[in-house]
Amino acid sequence: MAKKQYVTDGYIEEVEHYLNNNLDIQELYQDSNKNLKLFEELLLKGEEYIRLEGNLDHYVITSFGRVFNTDRLNQLSIMYINEEQLIIYLLKIKHDLAYIFEEQAWEFDIKKIIKRYEKRDWYYKKLNYRRGV
What we know:
The structure is a single chain. The protein has one domain. A hairpin with a 4-residue loop joins strand 3 and strand 4. The chain contains five helices and eight strands; from the N terminus they run αααβββββββααβ. 14% of the residues are buried. A four-stranded antiparallel sheet has the order 1-2-3-4, with no helix packed on it. Strands 7-6-5-8 form a four-stranded mixed sheet.
């Protein structure tokens, strides 16, 4: 399963504007608020998100279990550890999605999240980890 990259029509138009008008393309990547608005176009109906804080402010986690880098506008792959744990590593730090969902008062149902990933063909890593082995 290939990792998917998402580019919106609005983003393509904006890049073309920068190129056609000989503007500094680096400005496009530096405006994280602009990218956040472009990211919001990728959300599905009923999907909520939170923006992480501090040096992780260019990452967002959604109520559907998706994690995005808003600087690059790409969806990152989560790791399915077992029936109780979904994690993501951001800047070499492990984040447990169950904890984040609990903080946001979102329903955390791993089966539902994985089913949605498979239905939409979103990439995730499934680790074969068994306790006590």
